[in-house]
Structures are given as structure tokens and as C-alpha cells.
Design goal:
heterodimer, A: mainly alpha, 8 helices, 84% helix, B: alpha/beta, Rossmann fold, Alpha-Beta Plaits, 2 domains, 6-stranded mixed beta sheet, 4-stranded antiparallel beta sheet
Chain lengths: 222, 303
């Protein structure tokens, strides 16, 4: 599984480097603009938030590209020639997005750390905001994979599996919504925690469900 | 997986293999493929050839029945059988933007039993350009790459889904040469789906004719070309009953028949006192067309 995961990451290396390069370019431009407007401009945590967002978004967009290539190029056919089970193939697929999200979070963290070294201000609020929005996109991606599997199950006449997939999707969205509402209505030190937890639960639910649905496929040719 | 390979009496065994799709059912198929045998699966588009091979490769789970490869059950969740299977299909799942060489490097680490030496010999034999991205390779070179990928880990069962379809005559000949060399030593069992019937003459020991998801006839290639004949004759009687005839035409005073057992038909004609009897051989192509056209009839006759 790790060999397949490493290969997929290596396969997207150009897109990843290109995306991160563009994000760094945006970070530089935003920094220059904010530096130029100085005190008259938006608050510093907004600048940090915008910069961090681009750094998280770039690898996640590569995640969308990677999943498209995997599907379009019928990767499962190649992997099923070797000693991988469908569960391991699906595991590599969901972990690919996890690794890319991790790269984005790391890049954003490094940027905020660099900002701390330059300005002496640690923009924790912006880190929370960036982490939340990035986590939201990450959870959406995992839910996208789940929906893909629910649709595949339907086309393979696995109606109960398809229904379970859609139920998992609805459950994940509801959990996310409830925890977001909790964060809004009971603002306090646990608000950010509640928002991150909502994303995490939604993502993990979607990952587990999509791996289970993929492992239950009856047709791996598409 | 280790290098200990199971001994089994059959290379592949399909037992009641059935797969249903809306408006189509494959099987139930019962097929045994002996080690060292090349079995051509012949049939028109939509007959179920690719589905059969996909079930045997573990890419599709049948609704009923199953497949064993060298005694190991075929199922996507099991991996024991995969060491024994090399599959060349229309799509191979390669990393399209990577070079052919990079794809082979990936497979070398993925597939147990991969032999760099075997892969190198095949690449040289095919003159395969390893430095070109897969999506820039010609159809012929993509087929060659798929064959190298399918053969380099030393499988004992080859599943080939129309490997020569769409290839120009030169590349087709190269591919068939290599397949012939591989099968010559009798170490490989091959299930070869095709509707390019001239391929059969070079490779197949046996033929299975698949029509509407059913095997309507399985026979040896030599037996087929020895027994099937086109016979024309004159006989005043209009209402003739001849054994083993699968096609009949009347052209003015002449009767023209196609028989799947020339000996039996000619014996009957002699008894009936037929005149101007002319017997001509049929090509495998002609016989195949006849069998697939008259599939149900032949199936009844065989059973």
C-alpha cells in the first residue's frame, strides 16, 4: 500500500511543486501589498489567514487532480495485478488526500512561523481559521470519494451498500453542521476545537465508509 | 507470497461461472484449461469474452460460481492466485505521464517474482522505447509494454484480451511471434480472446466459441479444420435429411451444405446415391462464422 501511495505522490510531484510554487508567489504578492498599505490596511491576522489559505489550498487541489488521474487511468487494474487487496487500494486513495492536506498544513504552519520570526506576532487566530477552512475542504474531498463509491455501488446493483454510503455522507454533513452550530452558539475556548472536531469526524467517517464500500465492490474494471 | 508454487491438475477451472448484467447474462460457464494449453475464446463483440477474462483475473466478482487458478480461488480480496496470472487487457492502468521504463520500475517493486532479466529480454525483443511516456506510445508499443508487464513476473497463466486488436500487420506479427515462443515450451496456459481469427492458426490448440454469454462449442483446432467441409452435390430428392449439416442452400439443381462431420455426411450421400459430389476445405474464419451464426444449433448437436 505504501509503495502505491508513494508512487501516486511521485506521479503528482510536478503538479504539487507547481501548485506550491504558485501559492508561494501569491503569499509574496499578498505580503508585499499588505506591507505597502501598512497600518491603513486590513488587520495582520487577515493577511496571515489569506497567505495560509493559499498554501493549504494548493496541495488539496492537487489531491483533486490526483484522484481524477487515478480514476481516469484505471489505476486499480494495475494495482490488482500485485499483492494488494481492494481495501489497501482504497486506503492508499484516502491517505493520498491526507498526506497532501498534511503538506498544506505544514506549509501554512511554516509560513505563520516565519511571520512570527519577522514580526514577532504569532497569528494563532489566523492559524485556527486557516486550519478550519482547510479542514472543511479536506472533509469535503473525503466526502466526494464517499459519494463516488455510493454511486459506483448503485451502478453495481449493490443497493444496500449504496444506501449506506449516502447515509454515511448525510451523517458526516449533519455532524459537521451540529458541531459548527455548537461552536457558534457557545463561543468560548472550545469553539475552534468544536469546529475542527466536526471536520475531523466528517472526514474520518467518509474515509472509513469509502474504504468499506470500495472493498465491497463487485467490479474493479472502472 | 513465496516461490513455492502449487501443483495443480488444471491451470484454470471455471465452475458454473455466472455474471448478470441488465439485458445480458454470462454463463454459467464450466471450463477447464490444462497447463500448457492455448485456448482461444472466439466470439463477436458483446459475447462475454472480456467479462470472462475479467472474472478470471479477479477484476469482476461473479454472481455465482467461481474460478480457480492453479488451485487457488480467484477473488479480488485474495492475492495468492495473482502470482500465476499475467493479464493483458484493453486498459492496463499504467501511469500515463510516466515513461514506459518508470512504469516497469514501479511494477518491479510491486509484483513478487519480477525478473529484471526477463523484463530486459522482452523489452529488447520488442524494441520497446523505455524513455517515452506511455501516453505518447503508439498502440502497438502500449500492447508490447502491457505484455512485458504481464510476463516479467513469470506467471503460468496468461489472460490475453484481444491483444492484437488494432495493431498493424508488422507489430501484430511481432506480438504473435513472442506469444508463440512463450507458449512453445508448454510451460504456460493461455486463454486468448479474439475475433481476429487468423491469430488462432498460429497459437491456439483449442477453440471455445462464445455466443450470447454461452460457450456453444469447444473443440481442438485441428479437429475443427479436419472435420468441417463445404459439400455440393446433385440429388433429385428435394427433402433430404443429412447428419451434422449446419447450413443448407439450393442453387438450381445443386445442393450446397456445410457439415461439421464431413465423413458422416459423405457416407450418407453415398447411401443416397448423390452425384457430382464436390468437397472443399473451409478456413477457420469461415467455420467460426458458421458456428457463431448457428451457435444454438451446433450446441444442441454437440450435446
Amino acid at each position: 500500500m505504501w509503495h502505491a501511495l508513494r508512487a501516486e505522490l511521485a506521479y503528482q510531484r510536478e503538479y504539487l511543486l507547481g501548485g506550491l510554487g504558485m501559492a508561494v508567489g501569491v503569499v509574496i504578492i499578498v505580503s508585499v501589498v499588505f506591507f505597502a498599505v501598512g497600518e491603513d490596511g486590513p488587520p495582520s491576522h487577515a493577511a496571515a489567514g489569506i497567505r495560509g489559505m493559499f498554501l493549504i489550498m494548493a496541495p488539496l487541489i492537487v489531491g483533486f487532480i490526483a484522484q481524477s488521474f487515478r480514476s481516469e487511468e484505471r489505476r486499480a487494474r494495475l494495482l490488482l495485478a500485485g499483492p494488494l487487496t481492494p481495501r489497501q487500494i482504497a486506503g492508499a486513495s484516502v491517505l493520498l488526500t491526507v498526506v497532501l492536506f498534511g503538506i498544506g498544513v505544514l506549509a501554512a504552519g511554516l509560513m505563520i512561523g516565519a511571520g512570527f520570526l519577522v514580526t514577532g506576532r504569532l497569528e494563532l487566530e489566523s492559524l485556527q481559521m486557516v486550519g478550519y477552512v482547510g479542514g472543511l475542504i479536506f472533509a469535503m474531498m473525503q466526502m466526494g470519494l464517499l459519494v463516488q463509491e455510493a454511486v459506483a455501488a448503485r451502478s453495481q446493483q449493490r443497493l444496500r451498500a449504496s444506501a449506506a454510503g449516502w447515509a454515511g455522507f448525510v451523517l458526516a454533513v449533519l455532524l459537521m453542521a451540529v458541531l459548527s452550530l455548537v461552536a457558534v452558539f457557545f463561543q468560548g475556548p472550545l469553539s475552534w476545537f468544536s469546529l475542527h472536531l466536526g471536520n475531523l469526524i466528517a472526514a474520518v467517517t467518509a474515509m472509513a465508509a469509502s474504504v468499506a464500500l470500495y472493498a465491497g465492490r463487485t467490479d474493479f474494471t472502472r | 507470497m513465496n516461490d513455492q508454487r502449487p501443483e495443480a491438475t488444471s491451470a484454470a477451472r471455471l465452475s458454473g461461472l455466472t455474471k448478470r448484467f441488465p439485458g445480458f447474462q454470462l454463463g454459467p460457464l464450466d471450463v477447464v484449461l490444462e497447463p500448457g494449453t492455448v485456448l482461444a475464446l472466439v466470439g463477436p463483440n458483446g459475447a462475454g469474452k472480456t467479462t470472462t477474462l475479467n472474472c478470471m483475473a479477479g477484476l469482476i466478482i461473479p454472481d455465482e460460481g467461481g474460478t480457480e487458478v492453479y488451485g487457488a480461488a480467484v477473488h479480488p480480496a485474495r492475492t495468492e492466485y495473482r502470482r500465476e496470472v499475467g493479464y493483458v487487457g484493453e486498459e492496463s492502468g499504467f501511469f500515463q505521464r510516466w515513461t514506459a521504463g518508470s512504469n516497469l520500475d514501479f511494477l518491479a517493486k510491486l509484483l513478487p517474482g519480477w525478473s529484471h532479466d526477463r523484463a530486459r529480454r522482452l523489452v529488447e525483443r520488442f524494441a520497446l522505447p523505455l524513455d517515452k511516456p506511455v501516453n505518447k506510445l503508439s498502440r502497438g508499443n502500449r500492447t508490447k509494454l502491457a505484455l512485458v508487464a504481464a510476463l516479467a513476473h513469470g506467471p503460468r497463466l496468461l489472460l490475453l484480451d484481444e491483444p492484437t486488436a488494432g495493431l498493424d500487420p508488422v507489430v501484430r506479427s511481432e506480438v504473435l511471434d513472442v506469444l508463440w515462443e512463450i507458449t512453445e515450451d508448454g510451460g504456460h496456459a493461455v486463454l486468448y480472446s479474439t475475433h481476429v481469427l487468423s491469430d488462432i492458426n498460429r497459437l491456439a490448440d483449442e477453440l471455445a466459441f462464445l455466443r450470447d454469454g454461452q460457450i456453444v462449442l469447444r473443440t481442438g483446432r485441428d479437429e475443427l479444420s479436419e472435420r468441417w467441409r463445404r459439400v455440393s452435390f446433385r440429388l433429385p430428392d428435394e427433402d433430404i435429411e443429412l447428419p451434422d449439416v449446419v447450413d443448407y442452400r439450393r442453387v438450381r439443381a445443386e445442393h450446397q451444405v456445410i457439415t461439421r462431420d464431413a465423413e458422416a455426411t459423405l457416407q450418407k450421400l453415398t447411401e443416397l446415391g448423390a452425384e457430382a459430389v464436390e468437397v472443399s476445405r473451409m478456413s477457420v474464419d469461415e467455420i467460426a462464422v458458421q458456428i457463431l451464426k448457428e451457435g444454438h444449433h451446433v450446441a444442441r448437436a454437440e450435446s
